[in-house]
From TrEMBL:
The keyword Oxidoreductase applies. GO terms for molecular function: oxidoreductase activity. It comes from the Bacteria. This is SDR family NAD(P)-dependent oxidoreductase. Belongs to the short-chain dehydrogenases/reductases (SDR) family. CDD domains: SDR_c. It comes from Morganella morganii (Proteus morganii). Keywords: Oxidoreductase. InterPro entries: NAD(P)-bd_dom_sf, Sc_DH/Rdtase_CS, SDR_fam. Pfam families: adh_short_C2. Coiled coil: none annotated.
């Protein structure tokens, strides 16, 4: 297990779901983490569950769609911990399901793009300079198995996750010589609390879309993210790492 002692990691969209699972894994490995979200109540609940003392976890209310929020969230981490060694751009939404492009509401499209693509761009924009000043480190962007495949009915999400992968590759080339590695993780369906609240037939459909006939756990995604943030992956940059039970091999 990689050692994250003295490492400061910022994770967006981490008050619930996959992001909260990533925070939990990094805390187990000795990191100090900053988590962001839009809902103060959910952020406080996450703090209570992750680290009631607040010594190792900082909660920041931030909307990744907004430039000033993203600038301020990085500054808040630096003010609290004095450095930033890793960034996980996890915040994202899927938008409406089962809607063809011609029928898709423009505002709903814009919300997906602003959250998933602009949010990742702004995280990189403000996070990387802080990482460079802290001596280098890594960025992990959450794409999806749909980042390299197509799927009908959620075109904005599919387009957004393709864009996240493009941002990852471009940023990796731009900052390779400055000691910052940037990679993307592509989960399939993940058994988050929200997914496990769906009807059983929907869960079964999701599970059986993977050749391994189950969904990923949050821990499995978190362990891949931890690997890519760690020195164990020090020669890995610009890559796409699926955690999808074979979905993208089909």
């Amino acid at each position: 297990m990689s050692d994250f002692q003295q490492k400061i990691i910022l994770i967006t969209g981490a008050s619930t779901g996959v992001g909260e699972g990533i925070a939990r894994e990094l805390l187990k490995r000795g990191a100090k983490v900053a988590i962001t979200g839009r809902n103060p109540g959910l952020l406080q609940k996450a703090i209570n569950e992750l680290d009631p003392t607040g010594d190792s976890v900082l909660a920041i209310k931030a909307d990744v769609r907004k430039l000033n929020d993203c600038r301020q969230m990085v500054n808040t981490v630096l003010d609290k911990f004095g450095a930033l060694h890793g960034l996980v751009n996890n915040a994202g939404i899927t938008g409406p399901h089962g809607v063809k492009i011609a029928d898709y509401d423009f505002e709903a499209w814009q919300d997906v793009i602003d959250t998933d693509v602009t949010g990742t761009f702004l995280g990189i924009k403000f996070g990387i300079p802080a990482i460079i000043k802290s001596g280098g480190g890594a960025v992990v962007n959450l794409s999806a198995c749909n980042g390299i495949t197509g799927i009908a009915g959620i075109a904005p999400y599919t387009a957004a996750k393709h864009a996240v992968l493009g941002l990852t590759r471009a940023a990796a080339l731009e900052y390779a010589e400055q000691g910052v590695r940037i990679n993307a993780v592509g989960p399939g369906y993940v058994a988050t609390p929200a997914i496990l609240d769906l009807p059983q037939d929907v869960q079964t459909m999701m599970a059986e879309s993977h050749p391994m006939k189950r969904m990923a756990t949050r821990e499995e995604v978190a362990k891949m993210v931890a690997f890519l943030l760690s020195d164990d992956s020090r020669f890995c940059t610009g890559g796409f790492y699926p955690v999808d039970g074979g979905y993208t091999a089909q």
